Amino acid sequence: MTVINGRKVTLGDSPVDELSSGQFRRPSPERETIPDSPTLHPETVTVRDRILGWIDRSRDYWVPPNLLTQPPASLAELSDYAHWAGWTSRTDGPIRSAGVVWHRAISLPTTAVCRYVEWIAQRPGRALPVFAVWKLFILTGPGPAIADNVIRPALGAIAWVLL
């Protein structure tokens, strides 16, 4: 929140203010509004303006977040994005439904598995026991059969689809 000429103005798309304690709170409902004036004329939007606007909006979609400064979205935030975000103009309909199905079938399981793999890989004290249990499972009991008949074909199918 910035104060300009004695008025509070919200800058950017952020709906929250950062407090000194590191907590976040919602801003007050005060918003700067455009005064009604007969001098305001509708602007003519050119094709160039539309293309530049589309490029600016798509940049946020295609540019990945900075891994050093931006934390990843939580699973709840990803779910909210799939259900309510402005990536489509309607909150219902076939496009939104397809996005929600994609989230539930692909995005959510993939993100959850990758977050656990990330958590395990962050510390050798976690990674080494997991590796030892995995190796023990693969070498004993039903492990070799499961590795040959389930895991290897599944990984091959995933690699075929993704690569």
Summarize the structure.
The chain has helices at 47-62, 75-84, 94-121, 124-139, 143-162; strands at 2-4, 7-9, 17-18, 24-25. By secondary structure, the protein is mainly alpha-helical.
Features:
4 strands, 163 residues, elongated
Describe, in plain words, how this protein is organized in 3D:
- This protein has 163 residues and is mainly alpha-helical.
- Among the domains are: 1-32, no CATH class; 74-151, no CATH class.
- Helices cover 55% and strands 6% of the residues.
- It contains five helices and four strands.
- It has helices at residues 47-62, 75-84, 94-121, 124-139, 143-162, and strands spanning 2-4, 7-9, 17-18, 24-25.
- The strands form two sheets. A two-stranded antiparallel ribbon has the order 1-2. Strands 3-4 form a two-stranded antiparallel sheet.
- It is elongated, with a radius of gyration of 24 Å.
- The two termini are 45 Å apart.
- 0% of the residues are buried.
Shape summary: elongated
Q: How would you spell out the order of helices and strands? A: EEEEHHHHH
The spatial strand order of the largest sheet comes to 1-2
* Average pLDDT level: 78
Helix proportion: 55-70%
Structural class: mainly alpha
Q: So how many helices?
A: 5
Distance between the termini: 45 Å
Strand content: 5-15%
